[in-house]
Specification:
Layout: H1 2-14, H2 29-46, H3 61-68, H4 73-79, H5 84-90, H6 93-101, E1 108-110, E2 127-132, H7 139-146, H8 150-157, E3 170-174, E4 185-191, E5 196-201, H9 221-235, H10 239-248, H11 253-272
Parallel strand pairs: 1-4, 2-5
Antiparallel strand pairs: 2-3, 4-5
Helix pairs in contact: 3-5, 9-10, 9-11, 10-11
Length: 273
């Protein structure tokens, strides 16, 4: 009996009672689906989309207008890409003009654009001063007068050489000091020579009038045109350059050709020097 008792006791020691596993059982599929649903619901509450109640407020034009009025031009351009409602509000003429003028404290922006992409950047490079070309003006002298670089003037006006100044009635001068834009009126124009749209500032406070519209029609108009064409062929220049030299010599074609030749010799000497 002692052996049987020992054997029974030994079996109890060799197989101790097992303790329950402290780790929780894996969740069932129903519990997992309910937890994911609650997580998605929480995400929906913080995400603005057409599926929750917050979206209706951002589809109201009055609300959008109040928000968009505080946006700079780049953010306003991004907002116009969200949906049709946002695009219609963000593309409003008054809205865009206000955002374009606000950083520079412009008094007024006048003009109709041919391209809506002009408003997407309101950097100082969009602005220029209109300078009416006068006798004795040169690209170098204008660069000194307005404290800008010669290459900046040429680049803005799409000029390949200094001779291009004589075929134009005006030059666009880059803005070197943005403070001159404060309380000023800018005119959105497309310059045919520069081949770009620019917000033009007129220092005189009034818009320049094209000289061509002020030329008087006379009976000798055809005779003037023949002289101009002959001078243009002799100089091998465009009509604008020939007209310039004809105007500074009181209509004398020989004096105009002589003056043009003197300018060419001077430029060659400067280039050789």
């Amino acid at each position: 009996m002692g052996c049987c008792g020992d054997g029974d006791g030994g079996d109890d020691r060799e197989h101790p009672p097992q303790t329950p596993d402290p780790s929780p059982p894996p969740p069932s599929s129903d519990a997992a689906s309910s937890s994911s649903a609650s997580a998605s619901a929480a995400a929906d509450d913080s995400t603005i989309s057409p599926m929750n109640s917050h979206f209706s407020a951002l589809a109201c034009r009055d609300t959008l207008r109040l928000i968009f009025e505080k946006l700079p031009v780049p953010d306003l351009a991004r907002a116009s890409c969200v949906c049709r409602i946002w695009s219609s509000v963000a593309s409003d003429r008054d809205m865009v003009t206000r955002a374009f003028a606000a950083p520079w404290r412009l008094k007024e922006v006048v003009g109709v654009l041919s391209s809506g992409s002009f408003w997407r950047d309101n950097g100082v490079g969009k602005f220029a001063i209109s300078h009416r070309i006068k006798r004795g003006d040169s690209v170098a002298s204008l660069a000194v007068k307005y404290s800008v670089q010669v290459m900046d003037i040429k680049r803005l006006n799409n000029m390949m050489s200094d001779h291009g100044i004589y075929s134009r009635e005006r030059l666009l001068i880059p803005i070197s000091n943005p403070d001159i834009l404060i309380d000023s009126t800018c005119y959105i124009e497309r310059d045919n020579h520069a081949k770009r749209e620019v917000a033009v500032l007129y220092p005189e406070g009034v818009r320049d009038i094209e000289i061509s519209s002020l030329l008087k029609r006379t009976t000798s108009e055809q005779g003037k045109k023949r002289i101009l064409n002959s001078l243009r062929r002799s100089m091998q220049v465009d009509d604008g350059t020939a007209q310039y030299y004809l105007s500074i010599t009181d209509g004398d074609p020989r004096a105009a050709l002589s003056k043009f030749s003197e300018d060419l010799r001077w430029e060659r000497q400067v280039g050789l020097a």
